[in-house]
Amino acid sequence: MLGNMMQQPLLISSILQHANQQYPEQEIVSRQIEGGIHRYHIKDLNSRAKRLANALLKMGASPIDRIASLAWNTYRHMELYYATSGVGAIMHTVNPRLFNEQVEYIINHAEDRILFIDLTFVEKLEALQDKLTSVEAVIILTDRANMPDTRLPNPICYEELIAAEDDDFEWPSFDENAAACLCYTSGTTGNPKGVLYSHRSTVLHAMASCMPNALNLSSDTVVMPVVPMYHVSAWGAPYAALMAGAKLVLPGNGMDGKSLYELIDSEQAELLLGVPTVWLTLIEYMDKIGKKLESVKTLGVGGAQAPLALAKAFEEKHDAYLMPLWGMTETSPLATFVTRNKKIDSLPLTDRYKMQTKAGKPVFGTEIEIFDDNLQTLPHDGTTYGNLKIRGPWVIDKYFKNDSTKDFVDGWFDTGDVATIDQDGYMQVVDRKKDVIKSGGEWISSIDLENAAIAHETVKEACVVGVPHPKWDERPLLFIVPVEGKQLTKEDILEFLTDKIAKWWMPDDVIFLAELPHTATGKLLKMSLREEYQHHLC
Amino acid sequence: MLGNMMQQPLLISSILQHANQQYPEQEIVSRQIEGGIHRYHIKDLNSRAKRLANALLKMGASPIDRIASLAWNTYRHMELYYATSGVGAIMHTVNPRLFNEQVEYIINHAEDRILFIDLTFVEKLEALQDKLTSVEAVIILTDRANMPDTRLPNPICYEELIAAEDDDFEWPSFDENAAACLCYTSGTTGNPKGVLYSHRSTVLHAMASCMPNALNLSSDTVVMPVVPMYHVSAWGAPYAALMAGAKLVLPGNGMDGKSLYELIDSEQAELLLGVPTVWLTLIEYMDKIGKKLESVKTLGVGGAQAPLALAKAFEEKHDAYLMPLWGMTETSPLATFVTRNKKIDSLPLTDRYKMQTKAGKPVFGTEIEIFDDNLQTLPHDGTTYGNLKIRGPWVIDKYFKNDSTKDFVDGWFDTGDVATIDQDGYMQVVDRKKDVIKSGGEWISSIDLENAAIAHETVKEACVVGVPHPKWDERPLLFIVPVEGKQLTKEDILEFLTDKIAKWWMPDDVIFLAELPHTATGKLLKMSLREEYQHHLC
């Protein structure tokens, strides 16, 4: 027997509609690509998104159409988010930091028909345009006065496009499982893979994100997503902030310390979202100018494990809580959090900082578990390594245009991470599965070894890979890039590690390099080192 | 094109599963019907709910079965909630305060097969049992030592029932639109009508309830639902609290001031939920003992408009915020809130108290609107009266076993209330539609008139109804029950009202009565007064 409740679909347009009805005067403040600060209100976003929706429908956007963006965090990108998904088309956010070949692959693979770009990416697109097979129109996110001189054929001016339209528009209703947004992951191997979010997954993810056990968003919050809208939808902040009626502060392309601080301070941002390197940039700048982040209460940090020193620095210098959160493109992304709570606050600071290097515990809706290679669950003791799997209504169940079921077994998505889960449910990623070193039946975390080595003052960068070993299957090799102008010996670093790691973790050799291989998005390319050094110990 | 995300159904069992995985050690504290305080942890609730699930399946509970309860807020009732919906049966909470005839009607109409009752309701059931047509088994929510001497045939002891079972149980997965819970509304006319909630509606309602713009529930919260679990699922607190990992404090049948205060104080409850009369009882008791509610931050109040004096008293004497919330059985029930926020806090206290008599603004998921009789929307100016309608995924779309579409037009549920909505989206119920007085094309709120009259110190109870009038269609009649032993004249009261209401609102006559007619749940029976006095002005 079914319940007798309304079958209202969970649609992205319902978020904007709610925000416009309940918080029309709430501000959205953006650093503009053309320079200066732009501010308007949710009611203006609503009106302009509706104009854009009318324009998109004239351009032929329909449920099967992909509309792509190469753009920073601004109000115009927000309008594009809501208009595209709102009319039933798919918002494909392209990461402009990828190599041109990857951008080309992604846009062609997604079959994007309309492309919206910021001024900063005109040149990149000029270099690519001849290779794009599906794009029919390019819109530049600016006004007439700032339209660039470009080799792009018939570029459309965004402000002219929407000025020509009416803001009278009724968002259509459709299946909540319809595709809403598309985002590609850039792995260290193979072509990027697409994750196709639905309206349902996006709305449920936003609802969970608003909860106090997660981002804790209310109409009082001033939230500034520094994580880009081209990277997993800025962790969903454009949706969650509007759902909560929060004030949204968008940094545009002002990602340097000075620009970030000025915007934080002028808008009194309380909750910031970003990756560790951004917070390192910010704290270095704050150290330089000798000021305190007065308004900031919480800095959500994700994308990589935050160093303990970062949590300590924000606490002690800025009275701000660095809140780890974890997820992947495949998980929308938010799944786990180290939310500040009474228990965390009751810990001695050194223990608390340690907690703040973990990935966190799941918010309602996501479930995580660690498994051994025989698919048996492993104990939650904080030390046992296992393959981390996740499931829930905002977790992927297949890649876009890809029928491989390799990562999807028994209803779980295999993250490819190796992790521990402690007694309280806090998860910690210890390594990528392909990078963990399997030595004599036990696992060694390459990341933990790298973190131990990087703590040496003469080490600029460290990388650990497992290479074949005749007796132990694999043993760790440590690669070091020393700080410029400094010298370091193998004995120095091994001696330094002695009291920091288990004895059997000790690298079998140390190799000094001038630089390490990286992907376009800055990830270490361990694969190439593993290949090059595969015979080093055999 | 559909998204590629997991199709995990939103099931009530997933709430318990999440709570058990993430907050197994969180406490649930109950005042026992047998006396004394009981405390255990979420992991115990989980284990006992699974035992009960095994027992229910042996008793033949299946998706079409209704399982009823006549019970207070205790851990055993919690177990019943989760086990019943968890196995796919329907949890029917029966309101024991209804007249016996209504209880009989409800249980027979619902076709309840199994009945779980608290010790306090054994006598009530004995009086009813011969008239119940579907009930096959009665379980008494107690242990063997406390089993009563009863005329009920073969009563089953709850603790024995579950002790015989294993706690190894896997919650089944099924359609999230499956029916989960059933609750009857008791109107002032006709038979009670059933509202059949789905798993989806219940889970979405709980997610919204956790948000900071709503109840603001986290794993730090200590929440005490004083509103009974037999009344619209204690406003969903049994679900939302577990979803957030909050500590749950259940008052059992200890609804007097002393019992409430002792539990609040010993458990340091922060968030309380209840109807105005309960908070009046509590504050009177606190006045009597001359103590402060130290732990309480927020008192959610709903079910009726809270008097301004109550908000003022809690603020000034207890430093606690009385938070209005509004909803109906038909809306799961939570829909709107006057959440404490910066804007509310910035108001002068007298204005803030006024705001705290409103019903609130919608949380994400519910949408409200006011309409005139021609289905045109009306301005949100805080003064225009309109028919209040609501829609959203936890709003009813038909009554149980009832095909009437009268209240369901154009996708909205007609609440039967007359309300205003102000510029900021705050709604205020001004009257029931059938009670509003239509005088010369304008509407007069019977409730506002009653509130004005009740402010007179010699008025114990006041009631206003509209009766036919040759010139104005309807005019208000005021009925007064004076404070015992006191005298009052028509002139006194009309004089008193002069500067408190619009001149054209002035009642055409005042009638003094020894008592007013009420329903079983304490609602004024205006209908009978309207009938009796229909010729009074003609």
Protein traits:
homodimer; 538 residues; alpha/beta; Rossmann fold; GMP Synthetase, Chain A, domain 3; seven-stranded mixed beta sheet; 26 strands
Describe the structure.
The structure is a homodimer of 538-residue chains. By secondary structure, chain A is an alpha/beta fold. Among the domains of chain A are: 12-274, Rossmann fold; 435-538, GMP Synthetase, Chain A, domain 3 (2-Layer Sandwich). Chain A is built from 17 helices and 26 strands. In chain A, strands 2-1-11-10-12-13-14-15-16 form a nine-stranded mixed beta sheet, sandwiched between helices. In chain A, strands 7-6-5-3-4-8-9 form a seven-stranded mixed beta sheet, sandwiched between helices. In chain A, helix 11 links the parallel strand 12 and strand 13 (298-301). Chain A is globular, with a radius of gyration of 24 Å. The interface between A and B is large, with 67 and 67 residues.
User: What is the CA-atom radius of gyration of chain A, in angstroms?
Assistant: 24 Å
Q: Give the strand tally of chain A.
A: 26
Query: Do you know the CATH topology of the domain at 12-274 in chain A?
Result: Rossmann fold
Query: Which homologous superfamily in CATH is the superfamily of the domain at 12-274 in chain A?
Result: ANL, N-terminal domain
Work out the helicity level of chain A. 25-40%
Q: Compute the separation of the termini of chain A in Å.
A: 66 Å
Biggest protein-protein interface? A-B, 67 and 67 residues
User: SS-based structural class of chain A?
Assistant: alpha/beta
Low-confidence stretches of chain A: none
Strand content of chain A: 15-25%
Oligomeric state of the chains present here:
homodimer
Q: For the largest beta sheet of chain A, what order do the strands appear in spatially?
A: 2-1-11-10-12-13-14-15-16
Overall mean pLDDT of chain A stands at 95
CATH class wording of the domain at 12-274 in chain A: Alpha Beta
Discrete helix count of chain A = 17
Sheet with the most strands, sense and barrel status of chain A: 9 strands, mixed
What is the molecular shape of chain A? Answer: globular
